[in-house]
Amino acid sequence: MNLKAAEEGKEYIIQRIDTDDEELDAFLFSLGCYSGEPITVISHLKGGCVVSIKDGRYNIDNELAKAIII
User: Fold this and answer.
1) 42 by DSSP, 3-state: which?
2) Is 66 helix (H, G, I), strand (E, B) or coil?
């Protein structure tokens, strides 16, 4: 399942990131978004979703949410 299909308020563990873009991988890693890390969807928005990773909240777009496999 990807992050786009996740329930709001439920904590998930990131299984993998499905992207071929190394720059995007590096960016996500800098946010703490990598395999084995817990992630929680705070809310779904029209263009993406708000997630909580470690102690931060981030707004990510739908394409990125589909690339994060939980």
Assistant:
1) strand
2) helix
Residue 33's closest CA among 45, 49, 44? 49
Predicted TM-score of the model (pTM): 0.86
Phi-psi region of 46 (alpha: psi -120 to 50; beta: other; left: phi over 0): alpha
Classify domain 3-69 at the CATH topology level.
SH3 type barrels. (2.30.30)
Q: Which residue has the tokens 């739908």?
A: 62
d(CA 8, CA 22): 28
Tokens 């439920």 locate to 10
10-residue block means of pLDDT along the chain (70 residues)?
92 92 88 92 92 92 91
Give me the residue spans of the domains in the chain.
3-69
